[in-house]
Structure formats: structure tokens, C-alpha cells
Amino acid sequence: MKVGFVSLGCSKNLVDTEIAIGILKEHGMEIINNPEEADIIIVNTCGFIDPAKEEAINTILEMAEYKKKKCKYLIAMGCLVQRYTDDLKKALPEVDLWIRLDNYEEFYTSIKNLIDGKMIQDNKKYGEIKSYPKEALPLPSQAEFLNRELTTGENFAYLKIGEGCSNRCTYCAIPFIRGPFVSRTEEDVIDEAKLLAKKGIKELIVIAQDTTKYGLDLYNEPRLAHLLKELCRIDGIEWIRFLYSYPEGITDELIDVVKNENKICKYFDIPIQHISNSVLKRMNRKTNKKNIEEVIKKIRENVPNVIIRTTIMVGFPGETVQDFDELYEFIKNTKFENLGAFTYSKEEGTPAGRLNDQIHPMTKKARYRKIMEVQQKVSEENLKKLIGKEEKVLIEGITFDEKYYVGRTEFQVPDIDGITYIKNVKELEIGEFVNCKITDSKEYDLVGEL
Predict the structure, then answer these.
(1) What is the per-residue pLDDT across 221-256, written as a single tens digit (0 to 9) for each?
(2) Positive or negative, the Cα torsion across 368, 370, 375, 376?
(3) What domain range includes position 48?
(4) Is residue 129 part of a domain?
(5) What is the pLDDT of residues 365-421, one digit of tens each?
(6) CATH number of residue 280's parent domain
(7) Number of domains forming the structure of the chain
(8) Alpha-carbon distance 31 to 3, whole Å?
């Protein structure tokens, strides 16, 4: 059987897809990229916010068109399936099999039964999730992590160190969907990282819903800093970065590791979401404006040339003009090197979805545009400061006209931040690190020469 995958959503979801691909390949199935040639198409869905849900449903419908040709089976899995199983079954009869997150242990068995005609119709009513699940989702086995099929190329790989989230921010559906946070053991993570190094991976990107919570459930203390130090000892890995680190979890020890370990990219990804204390409190964030300002100040004072990325939300219920103005001024003055923003999406079942004072969609869009306009100016200013400096760049490709190689500096995360173009004056290898001089900057990208 030839199987095609479509993976939607975040990097954590992508790791789930890679594990699923590994399982099917182990059972002799062929993975292909062209859906027109697929006997089976599997869509791994995202259900985080409304645009992601719409994308997932549209993708399923798009893939369903291939059932009129060669495709025999259409399968959906992932977050959207976990949350809306009953509704999706009624709305999308084109799908032959729905695989929930809590059924991943039976992933291959379910597909094999479908192919063999042994599929028993699942008539169970799952209903709406009205409270946080107490049990964490089971982690894939260590063998499944080790056998996953990388889809990110030869240079970098995501290293997933935990599943779920226990923070319970009032706007977020992730704890409903994926349950409380559960860590992988340090030994398992290290073993996987060593295997990735043997495969030639140069960069590890450590991910979880909140990486600073790593180890709390297993070791009764945060162990991210210790894990990073252990990862630095692995031969072959040259860059290590961690994403999704909440501000209240950034300790002095973690800052010291970033400062002192050469392999750790001088890069912090800190999703603050807002800066107004009243908004932060309604979001059930575990921090406040003073603490956020202090941690940013401490990082910049202790880690030379550090890059800080953040994510913010506008239009949260009850966000006043004064709240937004406070956020706007903070963004303008703090000058984050990288920033992502999104408008609040009312998610059913979440505490924030029941709040009064929902913000009008047009107001949310206007506030979003204003934030991105100021950040674009900040980004251009920050990048111009790099002109004339030398940077280490990881080569990842070449432009269609072959005039430029395409790569990333240590402060450019794949698919999130910008890229660096290097003028093609001699042949370079994909996966090679080169030193280049920055000669120009665009809105979010850099241009350099060897």
C-alpha cells in the first residue's frame, strides 16, 4: 500500500506524523508525496484555533477528492479528531477511519483492520469535553520515537521531550485535547538525540508545550537546564535550541546554560501573550508585567548578543484600549528581535470562552495590524544592525536560479523566523556551516557573502 501524509499544525504535531510514518514503514508500507498515487491518505489535524480547524476540514475535503481516483481510504488523526470526533463523523462521511490521540497505541492495528475489512464501526459517543482530563495521554514508546521518519531534511530535527500541558491558560484548548504535561525520561531523550546525531543531524530543536516544565512530573524539579547540558556532550550536534519556554520557568540556571554552553543557540523563545496585569490575570498566566520585564532584562544582561522571540495575543475578552496601548508601548520599547502575534479565538469549552466583554472581530484585526506594523519597523532596525557583522550560517538549500545559497544563522528558527541568502561564488554542501559577512537586510531576511 502506498500512503500519503498531510501534517498540519505545530512542530509537536509533526513529530507525531513522523512517528506514524515510521510505524507504517516498519510494516512494509510505502510513503509517497504525491496524493494522486496514494492508496491511503492520512491527514494529521490541528484543532488549536478556528483558522486551524478550518484548514483541517478544508484539507480533508480536498484529499477526499482523490478517492474518486486511486485512493481507497481516507484517514484523519490528531487534535481536531480528539476534540470533535462525534461532530466530524457526521459532517465528513468521506473519512473511513478516525484515529484519536488516545487511540494511537492501536494506530497500525486500526489501519490494518480497515484494509482487511475487519473495521468495526465505532458507535461510541465521545461528547463535548467539559473538564480537564486528569490522565495524561500515553507517550509513544521509545522504539517508536527512535524509528520515526524525519521529514525536516538532513540538517535539523525536532526533539520532543514532553506531551500535554498543565498550565491551563483560560484561552487554550490544548490541556483539554492532550491532557496534563508528561515528560519523557532523560535517558530516552538522550538516546534519541544520539541516534539523530548518527544520522547526520546538525541541529536539535527541543520542543514541548512548555519546555520549562520538563522533569517536574518525573523528578520533582525542573530539569531542562540539566538536559541541555547533557545534550551538549553529544558528538556531531553543533546547534541546540529550545522553544516554548514560559517566562516564569526561566531560571538563573537555565540562563547560565545558554550563556556558557557553546552549542546552545543564544536564543530564547518566550511566549508572554500580553503585558497588562489585568489581562494576564484573566488569562490565568502564572506571571505578571514586573516578572516579565525582569526576566527579559536578566537575559539581555547575562547573555551577550542574545535573541529573544515572543508571541502575543490581542483582543482577549475585556482587553481595554488602555490594556492594548500598554502592550503596544511595551512592544515598541522592548524591541523583541522576533515576534509573532495572533488575535484571540473563542474556543468552546475554555474558561475564556465564557467571559463577557468579547472584543469585536474588526477591533481585534485592527489591533493585530498595529502590533505587526510596529514590529516590522523594530525587525528592520534590528536586522540593519547586523550589516557588516560576521555570522555562522547553516546551508540548507539554493535558490531556483542558483544565484544564492539559502541558510540560517543561529537566531533564525526554521519556518518561524527569516532566512539568510548567501551569494553563490563557490560550491557549498547542504549541511555545511560557513562564515559569512552580512551585506544587506530585508523585512525579515538577511543577505550575505562568504
Answers:
(1) 999 999 999 999 999 999 999 999 999 999 999 999
(2) positive
(3) 2-115
(4) no
(5) 999 999 999 999 999 999 999 999 999 999 999 999 999 999 999 999 999 999 999
(6) 3.80.30.20
(7) 3
(8) 5
